[in-house]
Amino acid sequence: MRSAKLNSYAGQAAFPGGKSDTLEESPWDTARREAFEEIGLPMTEEKLRGFKVEHLCELPTNLAKTELGVRPCVAYLCPSSASSMSDGSSVEDRLMPRLDPKEVAAVFTAPFHSFLCKTWTGDGPAPVQKDGRPEKWYRGSWTDWHESRWRMHNFYIPRPPATPSSLLKNPSQAAPPSGPEPSSHAALPEGDDPRPEPSALDALTTFRVFGMTARILVDAARVAYGEEPEFEHNSHHGDEEMIGRLLKMGRLSEIRKKGDVLTKEVLREASKM
């Protein structure tokens, strides 16, 4: 979940990511660096404490309205050896995210195969609204984008219990203590209160995943499981055909110009090429 301190996309669900520092930096190198900077995923196997990051593939580039091309890099975070998981612990238990509070407010997980399903199929309670009524796992609608029909996916991921392995707001957050607060709490020096600061996240009962992030998850799940979703979707992966046309028009320049946005007129002109 993006931090409220960000000027854009604040409060939205997204993958760790960003732009490459140089033209020589590959999409995979960029993805690994950004994951380290934003959620503290170590860059070296030595610091992964018995785990490794296996680079599986890269999906076709997606096009954002702000003239940015986003290349999804897919990896598998797994034990580096059979002995790494001999104690039965999971990745979530062993690798504690360390979040950059300027960019990330929280990190959460969701069952991958569920992004092909129309109803909630994960373990644990289904998503609920703030008033306790059931929430749909999936909502979708068609809209116009890229001079074609574009499927907008919305997934509502149940908020997990506030434990260190399922939700972290900052590097030092731990599960809230059970029972009454210790009597010594009032005597703590100023600034040493162990309780997390109140946050808008506290009121959330679900994490909404939508837009390009949801589309990437659906496409990645289609490839991973060799299945098509139970709901309507765009059959093609990414937007590379449109990106190629826009490049021929002189759009999507290396240096972004202030105010550059892909309007319907620009996309209509590109689609005729």
| CA radius of gyration | 21 Å
Distance between the first and last residues' Cα: 38 Å
Count of individual beta strands: 7
Strand content: 15-25%
| Overall pLDDT level | 81
Helix content: 10-25%
- The residue ranges in which pLDDT falls below 50 over 5 or more consecutive positions are 164-196
What pattern of helices and strands is seen along the backbone? HEEEEHEEEHHH
**Structural class of the secondary structure composition?**
alpha+beta
Number of domains: 1
Q: Number of helical segments?
A: 5
Largest sheet, if any? 3 strands, antiparallel
- Please state how the strands of the largest beta sheet are arranged side by side: 5-6-7
Shape by Cα distribution: globular
